[in-house]
Amino acid sequence: MKKSPVFSQLVKKTGSFGSNTVARLYFLLLKIILYCHQVATLVQEDLEKTKEELKNKVMSAHVQEPLNAENEHDENDEDSAEASAEFTSAATYKDRSEEERMTEAEKNERLQKHLLALSSELANARDETKKTVNDMIHAENMRAGRDKYKTLRQIRSGNTKQRIDEFECM
């Protein structure tokens, strides 16, 4: 076996140890270095695969809309006195999931009964002399059967001017 210069230096520096002990330490160190190199190579390969997968996902997710002849316009369009636009169904779609929302209390009857019992306890303990204006408005809305979701539905059902008026009145 040919001894490397590093091994020879280790033997010289650790003269009190036997060369057999130094050789064992040297080979153990080489095994550790080799193992670390293998792990680093695997990590590098995994990183490259992940980058490639991410690049492919980004490229496949990027969908370009086709150009329609309707969207194209010539130089004279901007000069015309009258302009118009048509909304597509995708543009007018709005998320109205809160209108169909079912609260946890509505789903769970036991919880609903418990909430009613607690509400009645609170109603008995409430001091009527310390009600604020907002408390009175809330009580009136609850008596009328309105909650925040119904209010949102009402606001959305009107035209823009009515929506603004409703919102300002709130």
UniProtKB/TrEMBL annotation:
Query: Could you tell me which residues belong to the region Disordered?
Result: 62-104
Q: Give the highest taxon in the source lineage.
A: Eukaryota
> Compositional bias (Basic and acidic residues) spans?
93-104
Q: List each copy of the Ezrin/radixin/moesin C-terminal domain by range.
A: 95-170
Biased composition annotated in UniProt, kind: Low complexity: 82-91
Entry-linked InterPro entries: ERM, ERM_C_dom, Moesin_tail_sf
Q: Name one GO molecular function term.
A: actin binding
Pfam families to which the protein is assigned, alphabetical: ERM_C
Compositional bias (Acidic residues) at which positions? 72-81
Q: Any idea what this protein is called?
A: (Atlantic silverside) hypothetical protein
